[in-house]
Write a structure and sequence with these properties.
Blueprint: H1 15-43, H2 47-74, H3 76-85, H4 92-99, H5 117-121, H6 128-133
Helix pairs in contact: 1-2, 2-3
The protein binds fe (ii) ion.
Fe (ii) ion binds next to helix 1 and helix 2.
Length: 134
């Protein structure tokens, strides 16, 4: 555990919290790498290096998505929020207002477009299966 910064004594923490800490740390590192590659790609004058850096940045995004999915499966609250905000269209803050009932979905300016994908699919899924079948 030398590369991880626990804020409580290791022996006090259950194994699932340690694994979540590992995943969260990895997610931070993946997005840090995305940021680093973005900056380097933006300033290099070498077109081949730029292409490599962008390729590498995109791979870090894939890694981040994988870790995020692992976390989503283990944190119901993260799952709930991702279902609200991912793939919504229109104003993101309005999606919150619709989700919390502050604004009726039918009255929101972007009515029908800020619903979570699972609701839009109507079957509780995120529609991933249909993408794979395409
Ligand atoms: Fe990575």
């Amino acid at each position: 555990m030398s590369s991880e910064n626990l804020h409580e004594a290791r022996e006090d923490l259950p194994e699932d919290i340690i694994d979540k800490h590992r995943a969260i740390t990895s997610l931070i590192e993946e997005f840090d790498a995305v940021d680093w590659y973005d900056q380097r790609a933006a300033v290099t004058q070498d077109a081949e290096l730029k292409a490599i850096l962008i390729h590498n940045r995109n791979e870090e995004m894939e890694h981040a998505a994988m870790v995020l999915e692992w976390l989503r499966r283990r944190y119901p609250v993260i799952d709930e929020h991702l279902r609200t905000y991912l793939y919504c269209e229109g104003d993101i803050l309005e999606a919150e207002e619709v989700a919390t009932g502050k604004v009726d979905e039918d009255e929101a300016p972007a009515a029908g477009t800020s619903r979570p994908a699972a609701t839009a699919a109507g079957d509780g899924s995120l529609g991933i299966g249909s993408l794979r079948d395409a």
